[in-house]
Amino acid sequence: MAIVQDGILWPLRFASTTPGDLVVTVNAADETLTYPTVTLLRNYYAAYDQQADASTDGGQGDALELFLTMLNTHTQAGTFSLVDGSGDGSSTTKITHDTAEFTLKWTNGSTTLDTYSHFFGWDGTADVTSTSLSLSAVNAASGLWRPGCYRSEDSREQTPYVASTARTTDGQVRHSRLVTPKKQREVAWILLNQAKVLSEYEATTDPYGAFETAWDDAIGKGWRFRLYNDISTRTGPSDYTVYRSTNLDPPHHNRNATEPTLWDVSPVSLVNAED
């Protein structure tokens, strides 16, 4: 049985409500397809969970599902499908067409979606063509941190309290305690490969896969993100909890004390951020 590995999906955000177009060839017919309209400052995820674009929890739309929606606007016969082709949750986009070979023309002059090609696992510098009706992205999609192990510390969600005590002149003691509505949690990971921690060592096929990238691009900005107990299972909201970090000091700058060639992500303080 495979060892369960946890992980984080951090949000992707578009700089325009109209992210762009992609020229796609099916049955030798080129068509310029338009990525669906999105909402500025809303979170999207490379999740493969088919969640619709909505404002819940700061945004929950599946950016890859929107990519698939775009592909299926091609007027040639047949249907595209899209899955995580990695088999282990590492988020490698695999596109299949049921009747014909196809090409994603990232370098075509009419393609403007190349700015966001890394969201889906391509680098936008080359056209890519299917083989045997399928095409796998060259890289992992952006927005996923997969440490390759399970967290070393987890306080689980705990209720924080705001309390005070006062004593009157006649010696009586009075207490006041308020319960804050959002639970807190601390998690940590140890003994990680440097490619999973520091951006400068990211693997060629996982160019956004370091915790530092997730921190710099999203978590350290105070954005919400998803914490999964099993990163290979991403079917919907029941598989994750949405959090924000409560401390913006980077937690990933420490080598492990006993194995200095490896790195730790020290306890990250979180607060539940679900609506």
Question: How would you characterize this protein structure?
Answer:
This protein is mostly beta strands and 275 residues long. It folds into two domains: 7-144, no CATH class; 149-272, no CATH class. It contains three helices and 19 strands. The protein has helices at 63-71, 117-120, 211-217, and strands at residues 7-9, 21-26, 29-34, 44-45, 61-62, 80-84, 93-97, 102-105, 128-129, 134-136, 144-145, 153-154, 161-167, 173-179, 184-192, 225-228, 240-245, 254-255, 263-272. The radius of gyration is 22 Å and the shape is elongated.
* Biggest sheet descriptor: 8 strands, antiparallel
Count up the domains: 2
Shape: elongated
Mean pLDDT: 94
Straight-line distance between termini: 35 Å
H-E order: EEEEEHEEEHEEEEEEEHEEEE
Low-pLDDT runs: none
**Percent of residues in beta strands:** 25-35%
Radius of gyration: 22 Å
Number of helices: 3
The oligomeric status of these chains comes to single chain
Structural class call reads: mainly beta
Total count of strands: 19
| Helix content, binned percent | under 10%
